[in-house]
Amino acid sequence: MAKSETDRTTIDLFENEKRPGRPKTNPLPREVQLKVNKRNQIKRDRARGLKRVEFKVSSELYQALSDMADEQNLSRSALIETILQEKLANNR
Asked: What is the DSSP letter of 91?
């Protein structure tokens, strides 16, 4: 029987090392957890009708956006979306 990293039901068959301390709450390695979490986040975003846009900015602009978002109690993403919507509204 081959071991699958995403197999949650038979993971106990492959547990060969018991360590002291708090038991793991997730049997998957951290790298796999991150991939699963990212995949689930993308699915949630798609279900909400969101599209992903990625771009690079200077560290000064990044910090200015972060500061402005903190001042307005918004996420940086929400702030950028607001700025883009205002710009599009002004160009119509």
From this structure: T
pTM: 0.58
The whole-number average pLDDT for the span 78-92 is: 93
Q: Is the dihedral of CA 58, 63, 36, 41 positive or negative?
A: negative
Q: How far apart are CA 24 and CA 57, in angstroms?
A: 38
1 pLDDT more than 60: no
Predicted local confidence at residue 84, as pLDDT: 95
Q: What's 7's DSSP letter?
A: -
User: Which tokens belong to 86?
Assistant: 């205002």
Tokens linked to 6: 């995403």
Cβ-contact 29, 5 below 8 angstroms: yes
DSSP 25: S
13's tokens? 């068959």
Query: What is the rounded distance in angstroms from the CA atom of residue 64 to the CA atom of residue 70?
Result: 10
Q: How far apart are CA 64 and CA 12, in angstroms?
A: 49
